[in-house]
Known about the structure:
Layout: E1 2-6, H1 20-28, E2 32-39, E3 45-47, H2 54-57, H3 68-71, H4 86-93, E4 99-103, H5 109-120, E5 126-130, H6 133-140, E6 148-152, H7 159-171, E7 181-185, H8 189-195, E8 199-205, H9 208-214, E9 220-223
Parallel strand pairs: 1-2, 1-9, 2-4, 4-5, 5-6, 6-7, 7-8, 8-9
Antiparallel strand pairs: 2-3
Helix pairs in contact: 1-4
Amino acid sequence: MNIYAHRGLFDNKKIVENTIPAFKRALKDNLNIEFDIRLTKDKKIIVFHDDNLKRLTGVNKLVRDTNYEELKSIKLLGTDDTIPLLEDVLNLVSGRCILLIEIKELFSIMSLKELNKLLLDYNGKVLLQSFNPLVIRRISLSSLSRYDIGILLTNSYNGLKRYFYNCYIYNYLIKRKYCDFVSSPMELVFKVKEKTNKELFIWTIKTKDEFIKYKKYSNNLICEEKGIIK
């Protein structure tokens, strides 16, 4: 069973999501780690979930409009935690667990080259995933294709948009050779299993009951702290 700590182990009180302390706690508990990456204005790859800084910093500004020099000194949720560079996280983990990295935005070919450069010297297992099919395709055509690549699914669309999304995802994308695994929210698991037998990741497990239910369907569960069963 591969258990991934969703954004590390955090409570967003004393320890904030996607930070070095959150990842240290996950490593201490011998868990794999899931986290998010995105780009700053000066094209630094940072570990941060939201496109806007406001939820975790109080600063109403887009990450893509902010240079890393400004970001690195901003404290998160009143703690001493700050936004790490991907490089910082790679140095911390140093191959001690599996890293499941979600690419949160449309990385350009040049940005993917920079990501590849950072990962070249990393000695550990890495999985890459994204909600964006274009990112998945770009990764598959790059040097990053040496890693397993996964598509993250969503159930948030409605009407015609949902219809066309479902047609494309279920009838085409998840059947491509370059799509190695499917990362599904809990409510889509059974539909995914009807369409493919590719490796399945299930998120986000938050309770013991959810853990017990979904471990029957996958060996890869992405959990928040209270849902992790050791």
